[in-house]
Amino acid sequence: MPSNEMLAPHPLSSSIPDKGASMDSVEAMIHKQMAGDVPPSRDLGRFTTTKYDDTATRLFNVGNVRNQACIEEYPSIASFQSECVSILAGLWNAPSTGFMGTATTGSSEAVLLGGLTMKRQWQIKQPDVLNSRPNVIIGANAHICVNKFAGYFNVEARIVPVSESTGFAVDTEALKNMLDANTVGVFLTLGSTYTGHYDPIQRVANILDDYENRTGHDIPIHVDAASGGFVAPFTPSNETFIWDFRLPRVQSINASGHKYGMAPLAVGWMVWRDKSKIPQELLLESSYLRGSHTNFSLSFSRSGAPIVGQYYSFHRLGLAGYRERVQTMMSRANLLGTRLEDTGFFSCLADSRRLVSHKANEINTRCQEGRCVEAPELPIVVFGFSEHVLATYPKLRLSDVSNAMHDLKFSIPRSYTLAGWGAQGEDIDIMRVVLRDEMTIETLEEVLTGLTHAVEHLIR
Questions:
Q1: pLDDT tens sequence across 2-25
Q2: Which end of the chain is more exposed for a tag (fewer CB within 10 A), N or C?
Q3: Backbone angles phi, psi at 43, to 5 degrees
Q4: Where, per the database record, does this protein carry N6-(pyridoxal phosphate)lysine (predicted)?
Q5: Per residue in 204-258, pLDDT tens?
């Protein structure tokens, strides 16, 4: 398989041709090159949406030639963005007035904006420690974009351990010992990219409340809800698992519309509880072509297509449509997990996907007859080899299974290792399948058959 060589130096091997070619010949050349790709709908490691109806596709084309930056020329795009922000603020229980939000180029930009806001707040509140290096609290389960914030903006990253013993979420006891006067904020994850688990956001908020009462230091939370922000509001557990602006400690939340928001690449959403919390110096007045507007972003010219797509999905699906799709994905994740375990070859990481609970040697009653699990987590299935397979075939590797699936034009990311995340500090080797709206029962059966046959072939 090809390796990622994007950052390696390359010799000059291509140049623009002297003369152009016909549209048909160039199109054929491009299609021929793409023929070797895994079909996007069979890329089981990605969270991003790959299937749209014909109306959505037509609207994407209309929005694609409209620049988000030109709000006077394309007031519709600005209006769609404002309405989407308002919808998300409501879903995430923001105060009815005073909030601020924006569209971003995916959640990575949103996370950088959230971190930059917290850093600048800290600098303003504590001018006497400007020579001290700020720090930010990050879980070991955080997306790489959170670490980018620390690296790009010269902030010390204090990594909170994550393990099976902490439910594959941040270790709140360890977090307590990392706080000090130079902590600008805490990043928490609503839906880990690695395992799908949610961090205990309310518990951390209580810890920070207690810390402020003892020290006077007000440390905000940013919730990276890149995946969970469009899942949690549509599940029953949202009533009891409190993670959003219902917690005063939560200052900002981001989500990716192009994941479970059913929008096209690439759109993220960022909402702050209170605009007054954003330092004025970060809100720049931008004049472009006609008119001016306040801008807080790391990019400028962008296609309006993703915003049009998000607006379309909100109104096309409504609350009932999103709820139905999320429940279906959760149920199919449960089905895939239990069926994988039923083969005897695999064991699922999350209790909610298992036939027998890790926590007690008893049958898991959370999922019966395909009903939705109440556990707060993403609709993904994370699994490795069963203890029997590991003991009987110690040389067998999950990467071999991944390669076999790739031959079937399915991409399940090569096994990755959760280093030291085991209950006794051991490494855990896993694979991950993301359940998206477009995964049908037929595709699920094909995946199960492929995985089963792959192991049967490898152990012969």
A1: 445 556 676 777 889 999 999 999
A2: C
A3: -85, 95
A4: 259
A5: 999 999 999 999 999 999 999 999 999 999 999 999 999 999 999 999 999 999 9
Structure tokens at 50: 């790959």
Distance from C-alpha of 61 to C-alpha of 137, rounded to nearest angstrom: 41
The most confident of the ranges 34-43, 198-207, 342-351, 355-364 is 198-207
State the first-to-last Cα distance of the chain, in angstroms, to the nearest integer: 24
CB distance 331 to 323 below 8 Å: no
CA 153 to chain CA centroid, Å, is: 22
Biggest CA pair distance of the chain = 72
Q: Which residues pair with 226 in a beta bridge?
A: none
Dump the DSSP string for 146-161: HHHHHHHTT-EEEEEP
Query: Measured between alpha carbons, how far is 94 from 101 in angstroms, rounded to an integer?
Result: 11
Instruction: Scan for tokens 């839906």, then name that residue.
Output: 191
The two tokens of residue 449 are: 């058959």
Tokens of 416: 């990755």
| Cβ atoms of 268 and 226 closer than 8 Å | yes
Cβ(265)–Cβ(48) below 8 Å: yes
CB 95: neighbour CB atoms within 10 A? 11
Find the helix packing angle between 398-407 and 441-458, rounded to 10°.
Answer: 120
Contacts of 156 (CB under 8 A, 6+ apart): 133, 134, 135, 136, 150, 182
Q: Which two tokens stand for residue 66?
A: 């409209």
- C-alpha to C-alpha distance for 94 and 358, rounded to whole angstroms: 36
What structural domains and CATH numbers belong to the chain? 60-310 (3.40.640.10), 319-458 (3.90.1150.160)
Q: Using CA atoms, how far apart are residues 121 and 437, in angstroms rounded to an integer?
A: 39
Provide the angle, in degrees to the nearest 10, between the axes of the packed helices 305-342 and 441-458.
50
Under 8 Å between Cβ of 272 and 251: yes
Give the chain's mean pLDDT: 89
Q: How far apart are CA 52 and CA 304, in angstroms?
A: 17
- Cα(144)–Cα(226) distance, integer angstroms: 12
Host H or E run for residue 54: helix 54-64
Query: What is the phi/psi pair of residue 19, to 5°?
Result: -130, 150
Q: Judge contact between 267 and 56, C-beta under 8 A.
A: no
For 265, phi and psi rounded to 5 degrees? -65, 140
156 pLDDT more than 70: yes
